[in-house]
From TrEMBL:
Domain of life of the native organism: Bacteria
UniProt similarity note: Belongs to the peptidase M81 family.
Microcystin LR degradation protein MlrC N-terminal domain segment(s): 2-289
A GO biological-process term: proteolysis
Domain Microcystin LR degradation protein MlrC C-terminal per the UniProt entry, residue ranges: 301-474
Family annotation (InterPro entries): MlrC, MlrC_C, MlrC_N
Function summary: Involved in peptidolytic degradation of cyclic heptapeptide hepatotoxin microcystin (MC).
Entry keyword Flavoprotein: no
Cofactor(s) needed by this chain: Zn(2+)
Protein name: Microcystinase C
Amino acid sequence: MRIAIAQVSHETNTFSSELTDQAAFSIRSWIEGEEILRRHRGVRDYIGGMIDEAEALGGIELLPTFAAITSPSGYIRSETWAEIKRRVLDGLKAAMPFDAICLELHGAGVAESTGDIEGDLLRTLRLEFGTAMPIAATLDLHGNITERMIDNADMLFGVKEYPHVDMYDRGRDAIQNLGRMLRGALNPRMTLTRLPMVIPTTTTFHGPLKAVNARCAAWEAKPGIVHCAAYHGFPYADSPATCVSVIAIADGDEALAQKATRDVADFIWNQREVFAVSLPGAAEGLETALSCPESPVIVNETSDNPGAGAPGDGTWLLAEMLRRNVAGTCFAHLADAEAVAAAHQAGEGARIRVRLGGKVDVRHGTPLDVEAEVVMNTRCRFITSSPMGKGGERDYGLSTRLRIGNVDVIVTELKSQLLDDEMLKLHGMPMGRYKVIAIKSSQHFRAFFETAAARIVTVDTPGISTFNFDNFAFTSSVKYFYPLTE
Protein backbone atom coordinates (compact mmCIF):
# COMPACT_ATOMS: atom_id res chain seq x y z
CA MET A 1 0.00 0.00 0.00
CA ARG A 2 1.28 3.43 -0.95
CA ILE A 3 0.04 6.36 1.15
CA ALA A 4 0.92 9.94 0.24
CA ILE A 5 1.36 12.34 3.15
CA ALA A 6 1.38 16.13 3.41
CA GLN A 7 1.25 18.75 6.15
CA VAL A 8 -0.55 22.10 6.08
CA SER A 9 -0.97 23.60 9.53
CA HIS A 10 -1.75 27.11 10.69
CA GLU A 11 -3.87 28.38 13.56
CA THR A 12 -5.08 31.81 12.49
CA ASN A 13 -5.78 34.58 14.99
CA THR A 14 -7.77 37.04 12.92
CA PHE A 15 -7.25 39.74 15.56
CA SER A 16 -3.49 39.67 14.96
CA SER A 17 -1.87 42.49 12.99
CA GLU A 18 0.85 40.10 11.73
CA LEU A 19 -0.13 38.73 8.31
CA THR A 20 1.28 35.30 7.46
CA ASP A 21 3.35 34.88 4.29
CA GLN A 22 5.72 32.29 2.86
CA ALA A 23 8.64 33.73 4.84
CA ALA A 24 6.73 33.04 8.07
CA PHE A 25 6.22 29.40 7.10
CA SER A 26 9.86 29.06 6.05
CA ILE A 27 11.02 29.86 9.60
CA ARG A 28 9.49 26.62 10.82
CA SER A 29 8.71 24.32 7.90
CA TRP A 30 8.44 24.73 4.13
CA ILE A 31 9.96 21.47 3.00
CA GLU A 32 9.46 18.66 0.49
CA GLY A 33 10.12 14.97 0.01
CA GLU A 34 12.32 12.82 2.24
CA GLU A 35 13.27 15.78 4.44
CA ILE A 36 9.75 15.48 5.92
CA LEU A 37 10.40 11.93 7.11
CA ARG A 38 13.88 12.81 8.36
CA ARG A 39 12.60 15.71 10.43
CA HIS A 40 9.73 13.79 12.07
CA ARG A 41 11.15 10.30 12.53
CA GLY A 42 11.42 9.54 16.25
CA VAL A 43 9.41 12.63 17.23
CA ARG A 44 6.20 12.42 19.27
CA ASP A 45 4.10 14.41 16.79
CA TYR A 46 1.50 13.65 14.12
CA ILE A 47 3.85 12.69 11.31
CA GLY A 48 6.10 10.82 13.74
CA GLY A 49 3.06 8.70 14.60
CA MET A 50 2.26 8.15 10.92
CA ILE A 51 5.80 6.95 10.29
CA ASP A 52 5.87 4.57 13.25
CA GLU A 53 2.44 3.09 12.48
CA ALA A 54 3.31 2.48 8.84
CA GLU A 55 6.48 0.67 9.89
CA ALA A 56 4.67 -1.30 12.61
CA LEU A 57 1.94 -2.51 10.26
CA GLY A 58 4.33 -3.35 7.45
CA GLY A 59 3.46 -3.32 3.79
CA ILE A 60 2.87 0.45 3.80
CA GLU A 61 5.08 2.89 1.94
CA LEU A 62 4.74 6.55 2.90
CA LEU A 63 5.24 9.05 0.10
CA PRO A 64 6.19 12.44 1.61
CA THR A 65 5.16 15.37 -0.59
CA PHE A 66 5.03 18.86 0.96
CA ALA A 67 4.98 20.19 4.53
CA ALA A 68 4.14 23.74 5.61
CA ILE A 69 3.64 24.80 9.21
CA THR A 70 4.26 27.99 11.12
CA SER A 71 3.45 29.52 14.47
CA PRO A 72 -0.05 30.91 14.94
CA SER A 73 -0.43 34.44 13.58
CA GLY A 74 -2.77 36.56 11.47
CA TYR A 75 -4.50 35.92 8.16
CA ILE A 76 -2.55 33.87 5.60
CA ARG A 77 -1.93 36.06 2.57
CA SER A 78 -3.97 35.06 -0.48
CA GLU A 79 -0.92 34.46 -2.65
CA THR A 80 0.71 32.34 0.06
CA TRP A 81 -2.37 30.16 0.41
CA ALA A 82 -2.55 29.72 -3.37
CA GLU A 83 1.12 28.65 -3.41
CA ILE A 84 0.60 26.15 -0.56
CA LYS A 85 -2.31 24.54 -2.38
CA ARG A 86 -0.31 24.40 -5.60
CA ARG A 87 2.65 22.73 -3.89
CA VAL A 88 0.46 20.14 -2.15
CA LEU A 89 -1.33 19.31 -5.39
CA ASP A 90 1.87 19.19 -7.45
CA GLY A 91 3.56 17.05 -4.81
CA LEU A 92 0.72 14.56 -4.80
CA LYS A 93 0.63 14.37 -8.59
CA ALA A 94 4.37 13.73 -8.66
CA ALA A 95 4.00 10.91 -6.11
CA MET A 96 1.39 9.00 -8.11
CA PRO A 97 0.38 6.25 -8.16
CA PHE A 98 -0.78 5.88 -4.55
CA ASP A 99 -3.66 4.24 -2.74
CA ALA A 100 -4.60 6.88 -0.14
CA ILE A 101 -3.82 10.37 1.15
CA CYS A 102 -3.01 11.19 4.78
CA LEU A 103 -2.73 14.82 5.86
CA GLU A 104 -1.70 16.70 8.96
CA LEU A 105 -4.03 19.70 9.12
CA HIS A 106 -5.01 22.06 11.92
CA GLY A 107 -8.65 23.02 11.47
CA ALA A 108 -8.53 26.73 12.34
CA GLY A 109 -6.74 28.13 9.31
CA VAL A 110 -8.01 31.33 7.70
CA ALA A 111 -6.63 33.02 4.59
CA GLU A 112 -7.50 36.39 3.10
CA SER A 113 -9.24 34.43 0.34
CA THR A 114 -11.08 31.81 2.44
CA GLY A 115 -12.34 31.39 5.99
CA ASP A 116 -11.75 27.62 5.88
CA ILE A 117 -8.39 26.63 4.40
CA GLU A 118 -8.76 22.99 5.43
CA GLY A 119 -12.13 22.62 3.74
CA ASP A 120 -10.77 24.44 0.71
CA LEU A 121 -7.76 22.10 0.47
CA LEU A 122 -9.78 18.93 1.04
CA ARG A 123 -12.30 19.97 -1.63
CA THR A 124 -9.46 20.66 -4.06
CA LEU A 125 -8.00 17.20 -3.45
CA ARG A 126 -11.38 15.50 -3.70
CA LEU A 127 -12.06 17.12 -7.06
CA GLU A 128 -8.61 16.17 -8.32
CA PHE A 129 -8.41 12.57 -7.11
CA GLY A 130 -12.07 11.56 -7.02
CA THR A 131 -14.49 10.12 -4.50
CA ALA A 132 -12.87 6.68 -4.56
CA MET A 133 -9.57 7.98 -3.13
CA PRO A 134 -9.41 7.42 0.66
CA ILE A 135 -8.48 10.68 2.41
CA ALA A 136 -7.74 10.93 6.13
CA ALA A 137 -6.39 13.82 8.18
CA THR A 138 -5.36 14.66 11.70
CA LEU A 139 -6.71 17.82 13.31
CA ASP A 140 -6.02 20.04 16.31
CA LEU A 141 -8.75 20.11 18.95
CA HIS A 142 -8.93 23.87 18.41
CA GLY A 143 -10.13 23.24 14.88
CA ASN A 144 -13.25 25.10 13.77
CA ILE A 145 -14.81 22.19 11.93
CA THR A 146 -16.99 22.72 8.85
CA GLU A 147 -19.33 20.57 6.80
CA ARG A 148 -16.97 21.09 3.85
CA MET A 149 -14.21 19.29 5.76
CA ILE A 150 -16.56 16.42 6.59
CA ASP A 151 -17.89 16.16 3.03
CA ASN A 152 -14.44 15.93 1.45
CA ALA A 153 -12.61 13.58 3.82
CA ASP A 154 -13.28 9.98 4.78
CA MET A 155 -11.87 10.28 8.29
CA LEU A 156 -10.75 13.16 10.51
CA PHE A 157 -8.87 12.31 13.70
CA GLY A 158 -8.64 15.08 16.28
CA VAL A 159 -6.33 15.29 19.27
CA LYS A 160 -8.27 15.07 22.51
CA GLU A 161 -5.82 16.48 25.00
CA TYR A 162 -4.78 20.06 25.71
CA PRO A 163 -1.78 20.17 26.02
CA HIS A 164 -1.67 18.08 22.85
CA VAL A 165 0.26 15.14 24.26
CA ASP A 166 -1.66 12.75 21.95
CA MET A 167 -0.58 14.14 18.55
CA TYR A 168 1.52 11.04 17.97
CA ASP A 169 -1.43 8.75 18.73
CA ARG A 170 -3.69 10.53 16.24
CA GLY A 171 -1.05 10.16 13.54
CA ARG A 172 -0.98 6.43 14.22
CA ASP A 173 -4.79 6.28 14.18
CA ALA A 174 -4.93 7.91 10.75
CA ILE A 175 -2.53 5.44 9.13
CA GLN A 176 -3.97 2.43 10.94
CA ASN A 177 -7.52 3.16 9.79
CA LEU A 178 -6.48 4.03 6.25
CA GLY A 179 -4.85 0.59 6.18
CA ARG A 180 -8.11 -0.97 7.34
CA MET A 181 -10.00 0.91 4.62
CA LEU A 182 -7.61 -0.26 1.94
CA ARG A 183 -7.93 -3.87 3.11
CA GLY A 184 -11.73 -3.62 2.99
CA ALA A 185 -11.99 -4.03 6.77
CA LEU A 186 -13.48 -0.58 7.48
CA ASN A 187 -16.32 1.41 5.91
CA PRO A 188 -16.08 4.76 7.76
CA ARG A 189 -19.14 6.92 8.23
CA MET A 190 -18.37 10.32 9.77
CA THR A 191 -20.74 12.88 11.28
CA LEU A 192 -20.42 16.36 12.76
CA THR A 193 -22.47 18.27 15.33
CA ARG A 194 -21.70 21.99 15.74
CA LEU A 195 -22.71 24.03 18.79
CA PRO A 196 -23.45 27.79 18.85
CA MET A 197 -20.87 28.49 21.54
CA VAL A 198 -17.22 29.38 22.06
CA ILE A 199 -15.07 28.54 25.08
CA PRO A 200 -11.72 29.76 26.42
CA THR A 201 -8.59 27.75 25.61
CA THR A 202 -8.98 25.44 28.60
CA THR A 203 -6.95 22.38 29.60
CA THR A 204 -8.27 18.82 29.48
CA PHE A 205 -5.99 17.67 32.30
CA HIS A 206 -8.71 18.50 34.82
CA GLY A 207 -12.06 20.29 35.02
CA PRO A 208 -15.08 20.06 32.71
CA LEU A 209 -13.19 19.19 29.54
CA LYS A 210 -11.68 16.13 31.21
CA ALA A 211 -15.26 14.95 31.72
CA VAL A 212 -16.04 15.67 28.06
CA ASN A 213 -13.12 13.48 27.01
CA ALA A 214 -14.38 10.71 29.28
CA ARG A 215 -17.75 10.93 27.51
CA CYS A 216 -16.02 10.55 24.13
CA ALA A 217 -13.97 7.62 25.44
CA ALA A 218 -17.15 5.89 26.61
CA TRP A 219 -18.49 6.10 23.06
CA GLU A 220 -15.24 4.79 21.61
CA ALA A 221 -15.58 1.74 23.84
CA LYS A 222 -18.88 0.85 22.15
CA PRO A 223 -18.89 -1.64 19.24
CA GLY A 224 -18.84 0.08 15.87
CA ILE A 225 -17.39 3.44 16.97
CA VAL A 226 -13.95 4.08 15.49
CA HIS A 227 -13.31 7.58 16.84
CA CYS A 228 -15.09 10.28 18.84
CA ALA A 229 -13.58 13.68 19.62
CA ALA A 230 -14.76 17.04 20.93
CA TYR A 231 -13.30 20.13 19.28
CA HIS A 232 -13.03 23.18 21.50
CA GLY A 233 -12.78 25.46 18.48
CA PHE A 234 -10.43 28.42 18.20
CA PRO A 235 -12.27 31.47 19.54
CA TYR A 236 -9.70 33.96 18.20
CA ALA A 237 -10.61 33.19 14.58
CA ASP A 238 -13.50 35.53 13.77
CA SER A 239 -15.00 33.26 11.13
CA PRO A 240 -18.38 31.63 10.39
CA ALA A 241 -16.61 28.31 11.00
CA THR A 242 -15.76 29.16 14.62
CA CYS A 243 -17.55 27.11 17.28
CA VAL A 244 -17.38 24.07 19.54
CA SER A 245 -18.11 20.81 17.70
CA VAL A 246 -18.02 17.01 17.93
CA ILE A 247 -16.95 14.46 15.30
CA ALA A 248 -17.60 10.72 15.42
CA ILE A 249 -16.65 7.96 13.00
CA ALA A 250 -18.49 4.64 12.92
CA ASP A 251 -17.92 1.53 10.86
CA GLY A 252 -20.69 1.47 8.27
CA ASP A 253 -23.28 3.06 10.58
CA GLU A 254 -23.89 6.77 10.08
CA ALA A 255 -26.81 6.75 12.52
CA LEU A 256 -24.55 5.43 15.29
CA ALA A 257 -21.96 8.11 14.58
CA GLN A 258 -24.68 10.77 14.66
CA LYS A 259 -25.98 9.43 17.96
CA ALA A 260 -22.49 9.75 19.46
CA THR A 261 -21.89 13.33 18.28
CA ARG A 262 -25.29 14.51 19.47
CA ASP A 263 -24.87 12.89 22.87
CA VAL A 264 -21.47 14.49 23.48
CA ALA A 265 -22.69 17.83 22.09
CA ASP A 266 -25.68 17.75 24.44
CA PHE A 267 -23.35 16.92 27.34
CA ILE A 268 -21.28 20.01 26.54
CA TRP A 269 -24.23 22.34 25.92
CA ASN A 270 -26.09 21.34 29.08
CA GLN A 271 -23.14 22.45 31.23
CA ARG A 272 -22.06 25.44 29.14
CA GLU A 273 -21.93 27.76 32.16
CA VAL A 274 -19.04 25.82 33.73
CA PHE A 275 -16.63 26.81 30.96
CA ALA A 276 -16.58 30.45 32.07
CA VAL A 277 -13.26 31.36 33.72
CA SER A 278 -12.37 34.45 35.76
CA LEU A 279 -8.63 35.06 35.99
CA PRO A 280 -6.51 37.53 37.99
CA GLY A 281 -4.50 40.33 36.41
CA ALA A 282 -0.73 40.66 36.61
CA ALA A 283 -0.53 42.31 40.06
CA GLU A 284 -2.94 39.94 41.78
CA GLY A 285 -1.43 36.88 40.14
CA LEU A 286 2.12 37.80 41.12
CA GLU A 287 1.01 38.50 44.68
CA THR A 288 -0.46 34.99 44.84
CA ALA A 289 2.68 33.44 43.35
CA LEU A 290 5.08 35.27 45.67
CA SER A 291 3.06 34.32 48.74
CA CYS A 292 3.19 30.61 47.91
CA PRO A 293 5.39 28.80 50.49
CA GLU A 294 6.73 26.37 47.88
CA SER A 295 8.66 26.97 44.68
CA PRO A 296 8.99 27.29 41.80
CA VAL A 297 5.66 28.83 40.86
CA ILE A 298 4.83 29.18 37.17
CA VAL A 299 2.93 32.36 36.28
CA ASN A 300 1.57 31.96 32.77
CA GLU A 301 0.33 35.02 30.89
CA THR A 302 -2.39 33.42 28.79
CA SER A 303 -3.43 36.64 27.02
CA ASP A 304 -0.13 37.03 25.13
CA ASN A 305 0.27 33.42 24.10
CA PRO A 306 2.38 33.00 20.93
CA GLY A 307 0.73 29.60 20.56
CA ALA A 308 -2.59 31.38 19.97
CA GLY A 309 -1.25 33.98 17.55
CA ALA A 310 -0.33 36.70 20.05
CA PRO A 311 2.98 38.55 19.49
CA GLY A 312 4.78 37.27 22.58
CA ASP A 313 6.32 40.69 23.18
CA GLY A 314 3.67 42.04 25.56
CA THR A 315 4.91 43.93 28.60
CA TRP A 316 2.01 43.96 31.08
CA LEU A 317 3.25 41.08 33.26
CA LEU A 318 6.94 41.89 32.79
CA ALA A 319 6.39 45.50 33.85
CA GLU A 320 4.76 44.33 37.08
CA MET A 321 7.65 41.95 37.78
CA LEU A 322 10.23 44.69 37.20
CA ARG A 323 8.26 47.07 39.42
CA ARG A 324 8.36 44.58 42.27
CA ASN A 325 12.02 43.68 41.54
CA VAL A 326 11.98 40.56 43.70
CA ALA A 327 15.11 38.41 43.82
CA GLY A 328 14.67 34.86 42.56
CA THR A 329 12.23 35.73 39.80
CA CYS A 330 12.61 35.37 36.06
CA PHE A 331 10.72 35.89 32.81
CA ALA A 332 11.07 33.23 30.10
CA HIS A 333 10.64 34.63 27.61
CA LEU A 334 9.93 37.76 25.54
CA ALA A 335 10.24 37.97 21.74
CA ASP A 336 12.17 41.08 20.67
CA ALA A 337 14.69 40.76 17.85
CA GLU A 338 15.89 44.36 18.25
CA ALA A 339 16.75 43.87 21.92
CA VAL A 340 18.55 40.61 21.13
CA ALA A 341 20.62 42.34 18.44
CA ALA A 342 21.58 45.12 20.86
CA ALA A 343 22.68 42.60 23.49
CA HIS A 344 24.76 40.59 21.02
CA GLN A 345 26.39 43.74 19.70
CA ALA A 346 27.29 44.90 23.22
CA GLY A 347 28.56 41.49 24.33
CA GLU A 348 28.33 39.50 27.53
CA GLY A 349 29.07 41.48 30.68
CA ALA A 350 28.05 44.78 29.13
CA ARG A 351 25.39 47.06 30.54
CA ILE A 352 22.94 48.36 27.97
CA ARG A 353 19.93 50.61 27.78
CA VAL A 354 17.26 49.05 25.64
CA ARG A 355 13.59 49.43 24.72
CA LEU A 356 12.13 46.05 25.55
CA GLY A 357 8.93 44.56 24.10
CA GLY A 358 5.66 46.22 23.19
CA LYS A 359 6.68 46.76 19.57
CA VAL A 360 4.08 44.78 17.60
CA ASP A 361 1.05 46.72 18.84
CA VAL A 362 -0.12 48.77 21.82
CA ARG A 363 -2.74 46.25 22.89
CA HIS A 364 -0.13 44.12 24.64
CA GLY A 365 1.56 47.02 26.42
CA THR A 366 4.12 49.68 25.58
CA PRO A 367 7.92 49.26 25.30
CA LEU A 368 9.85 49.29 28.57
CA ASP A 369 12.96 51.48 28.72
CA VAL A 370 15.33 49.48 30.91
CA GLU A 371 18.97 49.26 31.88
CA ALA A 372 20.17 45.68 31.82
CA GLU A 373 23.26 43.56 32.28
CA VAL A 374 23.93 41.17 29.39
CA VAL A 375 24.53 37.93 31.27
CA MET A 376 24.62 35.53 28.33
CA ASN A 377 24.23 35.52 24.55
CA THR A 378 23.53 32.33 22.60
CA ARG A 379 21.54 30.62 19.86
CA CYS A 380 18.33 29.34 21.43
CA ARG A 381 18.02 25.90 19.83
CA PHE A 382 17.46 22.58 21.56
CA ILE A 383 15.56 19.27 21.51
CA THR A 384 12.17 19.23 23.23
CA SER A 385 11.92 17.12 26.40
CA SER A 386 8.23 17.89 27.04
CA PRO A 387 5.85 14.94 26.50
CA MET A 388 4.24 17.17 23.86
CA GLY A 389 6.35 16.83 20.72
CA LYS A 390 9.20 15.11 22.55
CA GLY A 391 12.30 14.73 20.39
CA GLY A 392 11.50 17.62 18.06
CA GLU A 393 13.88 20.52 17.49
CA ARG A 394 12.90 23.96 18.78
CA ASP A 395 14.63 27.03 17.36
CA TYR A 396 13.96 30.51 18.74
CA GLY A 397 16.80 32.17 16.84
CA LEU A 398 19.45 34.19 18.67
CA SER A 399 18.72 34.94 22.31
CA THR A 400 20.05 36.78 25.32
CA ARG A 401 19.73 36.52 29.07
CA LEU A 402 19.38 39.96 30.61
CA ARG A 403 19.43 40.87 34.29
CA ILE A 404 17.21 43.86 34.99
CA GLY A 405 17.55 44.71 38.67
CA ASN A 406 16.88 41.41 40.44
CA VAL A 407 14.92 39.86 37.56
CA ASP A 408 16.41 37.54 34.93
CA VAL A 409 14.78 37.94 31.51
CA ILE A 410 15.31 35.74 28.45
CA VAL A 411 14.73 37.54 25.15
CA THR A 412 14.56 35.69 21.82
CA GLU A 413 14.47 36.65 18.15
CA LEU A 414 11.49 34.43 17.38
CA LYS A 415 8.24 34.00 19.25
CA SER A 416 6.98 30.66 20.58
CA GLN A 417 5.69 29.14 23.78
CA LEU A 418 7.87 27.73 26.54
CA LEU A 419 7.11 23.98 26.64
CA ASP A 420 9.72 22.69 29.10
CA ASP A 421 12.83 23.76 31.02
CA GLU A 422 15.29 23.31 28.14
CA MET A 423 15.44 27.05 27.40
CA LEU A 424 16.05 27.80 31.07
CA LYS A 425 18.89 25.29 31.28
CA LEU A 426 20.44 26.58 28.05
CA HIS A 427 20.66 30.06 29.57
CA GLY A 428 22.11 28.86 32.90
CA MET A 429 18.81 29.28 34.76
CA PRO A 430 17.83 25.99 36.46
CA MET A 431 14.27 25.98 37.77
CA GLY A 432 15.35 25.35 41.34
CA ARG A 433 17.01 28.76 41.49
CA TYR A 434 13.73 30.66 41.16
CA LYS A 435 10.74 31.42 43.31
CA VAL A 436 8.64 32.58 40.34
CA ILE A 437 9.05 31.78 36.64
CA ALA A 438 6.85 33.87 34.35
CA ILE A 439 6.02 32.55 30.88
CA LYS A 440 3.73 33.25 27.93
CA SER A 441 1.45 30.27 27.28
CA SER A 442 -2.12 29.14 27.85
CA GLN A 443 -1.95 25.37 28.46
CA HIS A 444 0.77 23.59 26.45
CA PHE A 445 3.36 24.29 29.15
CA ARG A 446 1.37 22.03 31.49
CA ALA A 447 2.57 18.90 29.70
CA PHE A 448 5.92 19.45 31.45
CA PHE A 449 5.35 21.97 34.23
CA GLU A 450 2.18 20.46 35.74
CA THR A 451 4.42 18.07 37.68
CA ALA A 452 7.68 20.07 37.65
CA ALA A 453 6.26 23.21 39.30
CA ALA A 454 4.99 23.62 42.85
CA ARG A 455 2.03 25.65 41.63
CA ILE A 456 0.64 27.29 38.50
CA VAL A 457 -0.97 30.74 38.54
CA THR A 458 -2.63 31.92 35.31
CA VAL A 459 -2.92 35.66 34.72
CA ASP A 460 -4.97 37.48 32.09
CA THR A 461 -3.77 40.86 30.87
CA PRO A 462 -4.92 42.79 27.77
CA GLY A 463 -4.07 40.78 24.66
CA ILE A 464 -5.44 38.89 21.67
CA SER A 465 -5.55 35.54 23.44
CA THR A 466 -7.37 36.77 26.56
CA PHE A 467 -10.07 34.62 28.12
CA ASN A 468 -12.31 37.70 28.19
CA PHE A 469 -14.25 37.54 24.92
CA ASP A 470 -15.88 40.90 25.63
CA ASN A 471 -12.58 42.48 24.55
CA PHE A 472 -13.14 41.41 20.93
CA ALA A 473 -15.34 43.04 18.29
CA PHE A 474 -16.58 39.89 16.54
CA THR A 475 -18.19 40.49 13.14
CA SER A 476 -19.01 36.90 12.11
CA SER A 477 -21.75 34.64 13.44
CA VAL A 478 -19.65 34.18 16.59
CA LYS A 479 -21.15 37.40 17.98
CA TYR A 480 -24.47 35.58 18.29
CA PHE A 481 -22.99 32.58 20.13
CA TYR A 482 -22.92 31.73 23.82
CA PRO A 483 -21.56 33.33 25.97
CA LEU A 484 -21.45 36.51 23.84
CA THR A 485 -25.24 36.28 23.49
CA GLU A 486 -26.88 34.38 26.31
